[in-house]
Specification:
- The chain has 16 helices and six strands.
- α7 packs across α13.
- It is globular, with a radius of gyration of 20 Å.
- With 340 residues, the chain is an alpha/beta fold.
Length: 340
């Protein structure tokens, strides 16, 4: 009896490369076409982008998901089932070794114990890695660094700063919107929660469009939290894992000369970039506003948009405008920062 051959990661990247060659416009690939050969297509149906913004042919890798799964011990397979099912193949292919390191397995044991104790964890399991499905590795054009997921109901869904409907946009997100309205006074419309509620569509804080259409990777340092207990899952291993996420993103885009913008708001986010000073100095970095110095990455540092600090420089930072100017000068499509 023969079994059907499972798709390799090469299928994903070869589809992307073929589509890139056929497309006359950069950043306009159809994700449904490029991802239909992968196992992740089913899990992505609620989070899939309508575009794949890859701009360069990509190096093929021999990563075979099924072979890797077969190499796991029964306990590892049980602990990592969520990653197997929901971590996008483009990220899994460069992070799979990280998943079997002792610290990550201990993190997963901790999370399993929390569930067994009946504790409520945010975001929902299927949303923990939504950042990876909404923004596959080749698509990244901007990285926004967050800290900890929102810890109340109907908020966190795997994207830093973003909240699910019908939740009212939190204060930091409101300040982000204010800055956007300053950067783009003629085109950006701040979502009006009261108006949306009257029309039967309450919310206005869901930033999924930034991820799917804009290639904005909204990554928290910690990916889970216990309900109503801020920072309750800090120092459990997530920070080490998401540091690796940043590292592989930098290395991948440096290698393929596609670069991206990094928004580091507040000292915690800026400290997260310390391990990457060498790669940022060699292939880009700094916080220059002209974006015309040939650097491969642009780091935009400012205070955090929190009400406690936003008035000290965030509103007039022009981070969104500068980001788009840099992307345009580096021959990448600019980001539509509108929410709806």
């Amino acid at each position: 009896m023969t079994t059907a051959k499972r798709p390799l990661i090469t299928d994903y990247f070869s589809q992307v490369e073929t589509a890139t060659k056929k497309s006359k416009s950069t950043d306009k690939l159809d994700t449904d076409k490029t991802l239909k050969v992968t196992d992740e297509a089913k899990s992505m149906k609620n989070h899939a982008s309508t575009k794949d913004t890859s701009v360069h042919p990509h190096e093929l890798t021999s990563f075979n998901k099924q072979e890797w799964i077969n190499s796991l011990t029964p306990e590892q397979k049980d602990l990592l089932q969520l990653e197997i099912d929901t971590l996008h193949i483009s990220w899994l292919s460069v992070l799979y070794k990280e998943l079997t390191k002792p610290y990550f397995l201990n993190l997963k044991r901790f999370l399993h114990s929390q569930q067994q104790q009946g504790k409520t964890i945010f975001p929902k399991p299927q949303d923990i890695y939504s950042w990876s499905n909404l923004t596959p590795l080749p698509k990244v054009k901007c990285l926004i660094l967050g800290q900890d997921p929102y810890h109340n109901h109907n908020q966190a869904h795997g994207l830093a700063f973003s909240v699910l409907e019908p939740t009212r946009p939190p204060p930091s997100l409101v300040n982000i919107y204010k800055t956007l309205s300053i950067d783009y006074p003629d085109t950006f419309k701040v979502p009006d929660y009261k108006e949306l509620s009257k029309s039967g569509k309450p919310g206005g804080g869901n930033l999924t469009k930034w991820a799917t259409d804009g290639g904005v990777l909204m990554l928290n340092a910690v990916l889970t939290v216990e309900a109503h207990k801020a920072n309750s899952h800090a120092n459990r291993g997530w920070e080490q894992f998401t540091e690796q996420v940043i590292r592989v993103a930098l290395e991948y885009h440096q290698k393929h000369k596609s670069g991206f913008v990094i928004m580091a708001w507040g000292s915690p986010a800026q400290k997260r970039l310390k391990p990457f000073e060498k790669i940022l100095a060699g292939g880009g970095g700094g916080d220059k506003k002209d974006g015309g110095d040939g650097r491969q990455f642009l780091v935009l540092k400012t205070v955090h948009p929190s009400p406690l600090s936003a008035h000290r420089g965030f509103f007039n930072s022009q981070v969104f405008k500068i980001c788009n100017e840099w992307l345009q000068k580096h021959n990448r499509d600019v980001i539509d920062w509108s929410v709806s």
